[in-house]
Structure formats: structure tokens, C-alpha cells
């Protein structure tokens, strides 16, 4: 059995100092206080990060290069960054590209490590709120198409972003009945329409405030529906470009454990319908439209603490425990608990990555991850 001693451990309800954590066969076996140690290490041991919306990493945009090598490179890079669980995301595209990507994930899942499956962001969205999505590929879903898509996906499709105001209720219900997490996004839904969707069972919302009807004093829109609903969750991009840091602060105060972090990160790409160009710390399409982010999950956590008035404990929960609850894996990942996977990140006193463990095995770091 392996162990790390005298660690400051972050749990969903806060930090505990001077703890020993032991693990074996990929699982945490014991967590106990270490009262004999005189010196408290200035390091923080936190759960491995979870990113439920990321398009690429390590120079690979998955939709542009849908092959097992791309996924391996993306997995390797994300483990370097402390992301021990993620959903690879596909933006609105042709059925051929979707099927090709799904085929790769099906083929690869027997050797998959931190890739949990697919998040389909589109194509069943509202063209009025398409953002960087290609308008020509956007369409309304039919129930037969959804059935065929899930059958072909064979369990690899874990989440889908759609605009509920344009989809039939039976389509949404079919997705929910087949254990696909439905996320409201790229939508012009009114407050009433969004509330109805959440009441039907839609669990979450894609990148709060971006590509959705706004919060206005006479038209409360999707954000107010989220704020008012007791169960609806939402992801948010905390790079300071997609959402102002002060707005992140307000959303976190209102939503608490219902708000979680995504990177929405992409990779440089100069071919195909999604050509992401790196410009001044962000990615834009050829026409200048802001596309995905250029940050890591650790950067997002740091931004929450430094700029948004969010405590370190809460920021860590937003990157670990809260998304694990959404995907109903909180007993397996997203927190430090006995019998959970031994996925954790050791941060040094400057909040840079010192060590990463995935299922109990230490990842050899190429270099420390930092802003």
C-alpha cells in the first residue's frame, strides 16, 4: 500500500491539516490524522480535476483529428494539468463527423483513462445563439434521429447541449430516460421556457451567460431561471473573457453548489469548419468570434480565488465535487474518500502542480503546471 503523509487535504466541506492518505489498487483505502508531525507542509492535496466540456489539448482538436492517437495525446496533456476525468466535446457538425468521432470513442474506450465519454454541444441548438457554431449544421432533432444516435453511441454519449424551446418534449424525455445529461444551452429560451425545461428534468446549463437569452429587468431570461430553480446546475468559463469576474462572483453567491467550472478549451486549428486562432490569450474564429478558452482547470481555480472572491475550498469544489455530483459519480471521483479512485493533485505553496496521481499511479510531469 502506498501513502502520502502529512498532507493538507481538501474535502467538500473544507480543509483538514496533517493528514495521511493511503491507497492501493487504484482506490483510496484510508485517510487519518497524523498528530505526530511537528511541521505542517505548505502543500495542498486536492481531488483530481473534472472537466465536462473540453474540445482538445496538447495541440489536438478532436473533431479535426478524430483518431485514437488524438485522444491519447489529449488524455496525456490533461493528466499533466491535473484533470483526471473529462468529457471530450464536439461542437455542431455534420452527421458524418459526429459518427466518426463516436466510432473512435467506442473503439478507444477499452483503453481509455481519464476520458469518460462524449459531450455533444449541438447540433440541436438555436441558430440565434449559435456563437461560434456553424449555422448550416444546426437543426431540430427528430425522435428517430435521437434513437439512432444513442444506439450508435452505445453508451459513449454522456451529455448533450440543446435548445429546449426548439425541441419536442419527447426528444428531451428520451434523452433523460436513457441517462444522457441534458444541458440547456445556445438557447433563446424565455424564463418560462427554461423553467419548464428544468422542471421536466433538464439537469444543467452550458457556459452560463454565454450564448443564451440574457438577464434583463423586464425579460428575466435563462440566467434568472437558473438562479431561481432549486436543482438546475450550470457550468461557467472563468477566463475573464467569456464572463466578467464580477458576474462570476454574483453567480457563485446565488448558486453555490449548483455552479461548476469548465475550461471550454480548444486547440489551435487551421482546417475544417472550426478554425481556432490563438490571439492575445484567447481563441477566435477567422471572423474574430470568440470561440473556446485557452486556459487549464488550475488557471480557472486560481482566477476564482484571485479575481472572483471565491474561497479556495469552494473553487476546488467547483472543479471537482460539484461536477462529479452532476454526472452521479461523486462516490468514485471528485472527492477524497475511502473507496473513491485515488485521483489527486498535490499543489505547492504557490498553487502550482507538484504531483498528479491517477488511480494511484503517479504521473511523470514534464514541467510544473502554472499560470
From TrEMBL:
Protein keywords: Carbohydrate metabolism, Hydrolase, Metal-binding
Single GO molecular function: metal ion binding
Positions that bind substrate: 132, 210-211, 218, 242, 290-292
Record flagged with keyword Nucleotidyltransferase: no
Cofactor (UniProt): a divalent metal cation
All copies of domain Amidohydrolase-related, residue ranges: 44-361
Residues that hold Zn(2+) according to the record: 121, 186, 207
SUPFAM superfamilies for this protein: Composite domain of metallo-dependent hydrolases, Metallo-dependent hydrolases
Similarity comment: Belongs to the metallo-dependent hydrolases superfamily. NagA family.
Name listed for the protein in its UniProt record: N-acetylglucosamine-6-phosphate deacetylase
Amino acid at each position: 500500500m502506498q501513502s502520502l503523509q502529512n498532507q493538507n487535504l481538501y474535502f467538500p466541506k473544507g480543509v483538514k491539516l496533517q493528514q495521511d492518505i493511503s491507497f492501493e489498487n487504484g482506490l483510496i483505502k484510508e485517510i487519518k490524522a497524523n498528530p505526530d508531525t511537528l511541521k505542517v507542509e505548505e502543500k495542498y492535496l486536492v481531488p483530481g480535476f473534472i472537466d465536462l466540456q473540453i474540445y482538445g489539448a496538447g495541440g489536438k482538436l478532436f473533431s479535426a483529428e478524430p483518431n485514437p492517437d488524438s485522444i491519447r495525446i489529449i488524455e496525456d496533456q490533461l493528466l499533466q494539468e491535473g484533470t483526471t476525468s473529462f468529457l471530450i466535446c464536439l461542437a455542431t457538425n455534420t452527421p458524418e463527423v459526429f459518427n466518426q468521432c463516436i466510432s473512435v470513442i467506442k473503439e478507444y474506450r477499452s483503453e481509455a483513462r481519464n476520458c469518460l465519454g462524449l459531450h455533444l454541444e449541438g447540433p440541436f441548438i438555436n441558430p440565434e445563439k449559435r456563437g461560434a457554431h456553424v449555422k448550416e449544421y444546426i437543426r431540430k432533432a427528430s425522435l428517430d434521429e435521437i434513437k439512432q444516435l444513442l444506439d450508435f453511441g452505445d453508451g459513449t454519449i454522456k451529455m448533450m447541449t440543446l435548445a429546449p424551446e426548439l425541441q419536442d418534449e419527447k426528444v428531451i424525455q428520451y434523452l433523460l430516460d436513457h441517462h444522457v445529461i441534458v444541458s440547456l444551452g445556445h438557447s433563446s429560451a424565455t424564463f418560462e421556457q427554461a423553467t419548464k425545461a428544468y422542471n421536466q428534468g433538464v439537469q444543467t446549463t452550458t457556459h452560463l451567460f454565454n450564448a443564451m437569452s440574457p438577464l434583463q429587468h423586464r425579460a428575466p431570461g435563462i440566467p434568472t431561471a437558473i438562479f431561481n430553480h432549486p436543482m438546475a446546475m450550470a457550468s461557467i468559463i472563468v477566463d475573464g473573457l467569456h464572463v466578467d469576474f464580477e458576474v462570476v462572483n454574483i453567480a457563485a453567491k446565488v448558486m453555490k453548489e449548483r455552479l461548476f467550472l469548465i475550461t471550454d478549451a480548444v486547440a489551435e486549428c487551421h482546417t475544417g469548419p472550426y478554425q481556432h486562432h490563438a490571439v492575445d490569450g484567447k481563441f477566435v474564429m477567422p471572423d474574430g468570434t470568440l470561440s473556446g478558452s485557452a486556459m487549464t482547470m488550475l488557471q480557472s481555480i486560481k482566477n476564482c480565488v484571485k479575481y472572483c472572491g471565491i474561497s479556495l475550498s469552494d473553487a476546488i469544489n467547483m472543479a471537482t465535487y460539484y461536477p462529479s455530483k452532476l454526472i452521479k459519480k461523486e462516490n468514485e471521483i471528485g472527492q477524497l474518500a475511502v473507496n473513491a479512485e485515488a485521483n489527486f493533485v498535490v499543489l505547492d505553496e504557490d498553487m502550482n502542480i507538484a504531483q498528479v496521481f491517477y488511480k494511484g499511479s503517479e504521473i511523470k510531469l514534464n514541467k510544473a503546471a502554472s499560470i
